[in-house]
């Protein structure tokens, strides 16, 4: 599934897509009475690469420059793009058929990964690529970058990974306790060095990390899957979760200090929030009933949205700061 994690067999979207591609089990996304929804306060714009069968947005910086991937087949065709001021610029990592940009910082430096069974991370400055490879591992995924050029991601193989934070040439392994996970990915990092990511074991949960301290991120009521993908300097975390009542679907969420707001693209069967910038603009993808994926960007969300009376679902960390 090259849209979301090239042949890594993670559930970054694989489980959700399996659900979403089975109409027998799915109903169109609607506002849920048990979940605080923000549709009335967020507006969406669709961003699609002309002629592509799918488009996914992964990262956005303070200038509103966005990066993502597109192609004709989500299984074996992926190319990178930068979207800035209404103009697409396309690029591919040399020698690889699959390129997946994941993040962009305010200097315009882009990180991502390329390959299939053998995967390398990369840093791209708009002209040249710098390869990112953790030791002798067969797979390195570069997933996020902040304005200090700290990079986060995952390393290992397509069968198992651990998260990492890269500062200069020094790698630090990230793996939430108690360990024993099959996959760990660090997906986003802000200017304060706060990291968010996801780990896979019996279930899939998000996590937040800073200075040796981990906290689990689970959307209240989500029993199978919560992915944390991005965090901005206001401490707003974005991601997605699988919610099941009479049917199952994927919903996007934003979270701050243990308060969660769910939102979805109108009429979509799945909504996936992947990145957020300093102003609160969110990027991601949504899936329609025909199986197609489309990139989206939203109007900004702010800290004040989490203080509105009755706004939010409450998680275990609502009584104090996340870090």
Explain what this protein looks like in three dimensions.
Strands 18-19-20-21-25 form a five-stranded antiparallel sheet. A four-stranded antiparallel sheet has the order 1-24-23-22, covered by helices on one side. The longest helix has 7 residues. It has one domain: Neuraminidase (6 Propeller), CATH 2.120.10.30. The protein is mainly β. The chain has one helix and 25 strands. The protein starts with 13 loop residues before the first helix and ends in a 9-residue tail after the last strand.
Tag the structure with descriptive keywords:
323 residues, mainly beta, Neuraminidase, five-stranded antiparallel β-sheet, four-stranded antiparallel β-sheet, 1 helix, 25 strands, 46% strand, globular
How is the biggest beta sheet arranged?
5 strands, antiparallel
Provide the gyration radius in Å.
18 Å
CATH topology: Neuraminidase
- Got a strand count? 25
Number of helical segments with 4 or more residues: 1
Alpha-carbon distance between the termini?
Answer: 34 Å
Strand content: over 45%
Q: Report the helical percentage.
A: under 10%
Q: Give me the secondary-structure category.
A: mainly beta
CATH superfamily: TolB, C-terminal domain
The CATH class turns out to be Mainly Beta
* Overall shape: globular
**Order of strands side by side in the largest beta sheet?**
18-19-20-21-25
Domain tally: 1
CATH architecture: 6 Propeller
Give the low-pLDDT segments.
6-35
Question: Could you give the order of the helices and strands?
Answer: HEEEEEEEEEEEEEEEEEEEEEEEEE
Look at the structure and give the mean pLDDT: 86
């Amino acid at each position: 599934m090259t849209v979301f994690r090239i042949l890594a067999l993670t559930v970054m979207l694989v489980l959700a897509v399996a659900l979403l591609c089975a109409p027998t089990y799915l109903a169109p996304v609607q506002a849920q009475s048990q979940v605080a929804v923000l549709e009335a306060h967020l507006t969406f714009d669709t961003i699609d690469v002309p002629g592509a069968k799918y488009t996914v947005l992964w990262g956005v910086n303070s200038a509103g420059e966005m990066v993502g991937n597109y192609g004709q087949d989500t299984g074996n065709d992926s190319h990178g793009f930068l979207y800035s001021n209404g103009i697409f610029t396309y690029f591919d990592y040399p020698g690889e058929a699959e390129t997946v940009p994941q993040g962009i910082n305010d200097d315009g430096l882009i990180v991502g990964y390329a390959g299939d069974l053998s995967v390398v991370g990369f840093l791209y400055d708009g002209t040249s690529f710098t390869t990112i490879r953790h030791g002798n591992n067969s797979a390195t995924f570069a997933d996020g970058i902040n304005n200090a050029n700290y990079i986060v991601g995952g390393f290992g193989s397509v069968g198992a990974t651990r998260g990492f934070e890269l500062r200069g040439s020094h790698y630090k392994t990230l793996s939430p306790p108690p360990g024993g996970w099959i996959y760990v990915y660090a997906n986003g990092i802000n200017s304060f060095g706060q990291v968010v990511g996801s780990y896979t074991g019996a279930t899939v949960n998000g996590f937040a990390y800073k200075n040796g301290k981990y906290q689990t991120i689970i959307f209240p009521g989500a029993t199978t899957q919560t992915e944390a993908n991005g965090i901005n300097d206001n401490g707003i975390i974005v991601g997605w979760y699988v919610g099941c009542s009479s049917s199952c679907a994927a919903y996007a969420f934003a979270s701050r200090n243990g308060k969660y707001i769910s939102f979805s693209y109108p009429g979509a069967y799945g909504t996936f929030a992947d990145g957020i910038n300093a102003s609160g603009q969110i990027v991601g993808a949504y899936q329609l009933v025909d199986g197609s994926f489309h990139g989206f960007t939203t109007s900004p969300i702010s800290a004040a949205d989490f203080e509105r009376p009755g706004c939010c679902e409450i998680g275990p960390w609502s009584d104090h700061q996340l870090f």
